[in-house]
Amino acid sequence: MGLLLVLLLAAKPNVVVIMADDMGFADLGCYGSEIKTPNLDGLAAKGLRFTQFYNCARCCPTRASLLTGLYPHQAGVGHMVDNRGRPGYMGRLNDRCATLGEVLRTAGYRTYLSGKWHVGENAGHWPVDRGFDRSYSLVSGGTNYWRLDPGRTLVRDAEKITPPKDWYVTDALTENAVAFLKEHAKFDKPFLLYLPYTAPHWPLHAHPSDIAAYKDTYREGWDVLREKRLQRQMKLGLIDPKWKLTARDAKVPAWTDAKNREDAAHRMAVYAAQITCMDRGIGKVLEQLDAMNARENTLVLFMADNGGCAEIIDRGKKGEPAGGPDSFLSYGVGWANASNTPFRMYKHWVHEGGIASPLIASWPATIKTPGITSQVGHLIDIMATCVDLSGTTYPAKLQPLEGKSLRPIFEGRKREGHEALYWEHEGNQAVRQGDWKLVAQHNKPWELYDLANDRTELNDLSSREPQRVKAMIGMYEAWAKRSNVVPWASLNKKAKK
Known about the structure:
By secondary structure, this protein is α/β, with parallel strands linked by helices. 32% of the residues lie in helices and 16% in strands. It has one domain (12-418): Alkaline Phosphatase, subunit A, CATH 3.40.720.10.
């Protein structure tokens, strides 16, 4: 064994965690998209792509889970950043959890964050208060890409700052991430970089040159786009051909019947441009890792916080087309449907379209067999992975970790899976046990799916498997009780009083 390899195996790996905001399962080139993402595609080509990795359906809960290795309600962020007076709904990370920054510091890491925080609005709950040595952060979530919206807070470490006039948020997050890595060169320590972009979350804002690259791409419309993406996914080996493509959303007309098709195609072009800009920024981060000779022993993870977003946003200057600072628009249900190809539903819901995330893992020193894995993973696994790789110990006084390390998968082995995985958001609820998934929309009946044969959730087996449904409901209820989940209707009733 060569000396360099021996040293790499002995050294603690650096960790870079990158997250996209409101990006669907099918929005990267390496996951079947026409969107240009050469840097992420390059990572995937030499690393691993997960086909069954999960998030928590919405921005704040996902970030809480990623940062702590717990389910969102256990960390205090069962919904968004408003405090609803319940332990699972404090609107910020509680003191019964630790973040990736706090835990990896105990293993001798320097820790950096550049991006969207959204798990604690007030001073005292910012990244520098929860384990990050340096941060450049939108603590309040997303914003106009060209200027900071009123009520939004941008901080550098512990100070509020005002962005410069030539600011574009995606580029700013990249630039500060690269600056932190350059600064790290003076430290003889491993590092954690957490880079949660706001792209491609609405509003649809992008550089004109990036938009121009997609000028004619979406004139065929969402119906053709979904079919083309599905065919690529099957060719890539991401999707089992026996899974049927879900029907176009009932709220969406056939493209040939849609009004304002020119505007709709333009909106999708801007959305694609936002992703391409993010990918270009990720390329700059990778270039800096190369300049530091750190690429070989750096674990890079890329994922999305929820599925494509079907929210209808139409603000800003009336008649202003998507892209510039005076517009404030979303891309709509038809394109969100395409973003989540081939799955059902969207951000907010816990059907596969809301919670299925791409996960790209790159770690050249360890991942020796690039390809695709169908082993199941969840955001709760990221903390457990970091604890494992860093050799540290998660604090015993806190809530026990829910996740399991992904390291065996990186090493080409089969890992012991979870007994079950669970979700709840706004009354939408689910439990997955093996290939069986029990799922319900708020105030609607439970549905049961065999994901091995029907991952697009089209054949409800609940009436055929009543005993399985009963048992899985029991599992869900036990999890909800221990995890601080409160029924959505009663939570809202209390909040309105």
